[in-house]
Amino acid sequence: MKAEIITTGTEIMIGSILNTNSKFLSSKLSDLGIEPCYHTSVEDSVEKLSSVIRIALDRADVIITTGGLGPTEDDLTKETIAKVLGLELEKDIDLEHEIYKRFKRMNVTMSNNNRKQALKPKGSILIKNDNGTAPGIFLEYNNKKLIMLPGPPNEMIPMFNDYVTPMLITDSNIIIRSINTIGIGESNLEEKLKNLDIYEDNFNISTYAKSGTVEIKIIGKSDNKEALNHKINEKIKVIKDNFNDYIYGFDNKSIAEIVVDLLREKNMQLSLCESCTGGLISSKITSVPGASRVFDRAIVTYSNNAKIHELNVSVDTLERYGAVSEETAFEMAKGLLNKTDSDIVLSVTGIAGPDGGSKEKPVGLVYFCVMNRKEYKVIKNIFSGNRATIQERAAIKSLFEIQKFI
Predict the structure, then answer these.
(1) Which one, of 352, 358, 351, lies nearest residue 388 by Cα?
(2) Burial annotation 184-221 (CB, 10 A radius, 16+ → b, else e)
(3) Which listed site, 29, 281, 316, 328, has its alpha carbon 20 to 30 Å from 292?
(4) Which residues, 6+ apart, have CB-to-CB distance to 367 below 8 Å?
(5) Beta bridge partners of 4
(6) Which strands, in side-by-side order, build the sheet including 144-149?
(7) How far apart are CA 246 and CA 179, in angstroms?
């Protein structure tokens, strides 16, 4: 199936906001085996949107629009689509009541404009919006699927994941699995995957570089879901056997979630001392619900003075080896372990750039030390990229080293 993604809004056309919806939807559609062939952006105009919809109906099987479902005068999507298809708009009484109750809970008077959000093209199905008042709309017309979603990503993304995806995969058996890796580049990984006996018809195996990680995505299609699941598990085993040192997890779990889960299983407490990452690792940990049960503290010791006073790093070590060194990383971790009751600690110190590098210690050089009450490990890495990229990659690598050490 071919898909067209239509993003509406004058604010997109004039560059006031970044269109991230198309990127998200293209990725998700590809995962479902639906080919995203066209991206179209259009301003808030009945005439122009009508033209875009007519073109999309001629060349795509699935048409997804984002934006234009709100209560204001420039929210025109469902009215325009209904007009193009020759359908009447009908009021959904239950939805109108739900919108009214939402406003009442917020102690806000519902305006007449908001009643407009309870209208839908005749014969369409409403898509629940758990985070806003504008529901989505699903409509089948002449063997085409039209899906209208709100523009704000915090509303659109969960609606697509929770409600739209099941609508799109009812026609065939599709299984999607992901294998997530750290420490190997995408091109290197892709080249090595080609040497494995894992490719065949009805399977798509692709790699996607993300922030500090590379995802291997396997998409399989078959009328026999049990056999399909067996084949995918076989392919995962082959990949795991060949890349186990780089794999941190599977499917949608982040490395931070995996680390928190491991700490919880082992009943362990973690503490961090960060220099070049400036609190980024602890931010990732604390973004996971329930992290408070396993995460004790984080100290950002950015200056040498902070390393000396907070972590008892010796002046001699800093003068002889420098702040970015194996010795300093070790003393930072040791000082933190002595200062806390944590079971495991990690220190990180490095040069994020763009300045501060040298031939001996280039920008991107980072030392990590992960330590418990019995042993420790110091890791040296040189990351490429700008300052933000180096910090992000160092944070991800830190979590991976904690995972392996637990």
Answers:
(1) 352
(2) bebeebbeebeeeebeeeebebebeeeebbbbbbbbbe
(3) 328
(4) 324, 325, 326, 328, 329, 348, 349, 350, 378, 379, 380, 381
(5) 38, 63
(6) 35-42, 2-8, 62-66, 144-149, 136-141, 125-127
(7) 10
For the record, the structure tokens of 107 come out as: 């102690």
Question: Which tokens belong to 147?
Answer: 């899906």
CA distances from 107 to 97, 129, 314, 326 (A): 15, 20, 59, 58
Structure tokens at 91: 């009021």
Please state the φ and ψ torsions of residue 251, each to the nearest 5 degrees: 60, -135
Q: Which domains does the chain have, with CATH numbers?
A: 2-168 (3.40.980.10), 174-250 (3.30.70.2860), 255-405 (3.90.950.20)
Task: Compute the C-alpha angle 182/207/220, nearest 5°.
Answer: 120
Q: Which helix (H) or strand (E) holds 145?
A: strand 144-149
The CB-side HSE value for 382 (13 A sphere, CA atoms) comes to 7
Structural contact between residues 406 and 387, judged by C-beta atoms closer than 8 angstroms: no
**By C-alpha distance, which of 58, 57, 55, 78 is closest to 66?**
78
Q: Which of 335, 342, 344 is nearest to 376 (CA)?
A: 344
**128 or 60, greater pLDDT:** 60
C-alpha 2/C-alpha 373 separation (Å) is 57
* pLDDT for the residue 171: 53
Give pLDDT tens digits for 12-54.
Answer: 999 999 999 999 999 899 878 789 999 999 999 999 999 999 9
- Give Cα 209 distance to the centre of its chain: 12
Length of the chain: 406
Tell whether the model's pLDDT for residue 172 goes beyond 70. Answer: no
Q: How many CB atoms lie within 10 A of CB 60?
A: 23
Please tell me the predicted confidence (pLDDT) of residue 115: 80
Q: What is the pTM of this model?
A: 0.74
d(CA 61, CA 35): 10
Contacts of 289 by beta carbon, 8 Å cutoff, 6+ apart: none
Which residues have CB under 8 Å from 191's CB, separation 6+? none
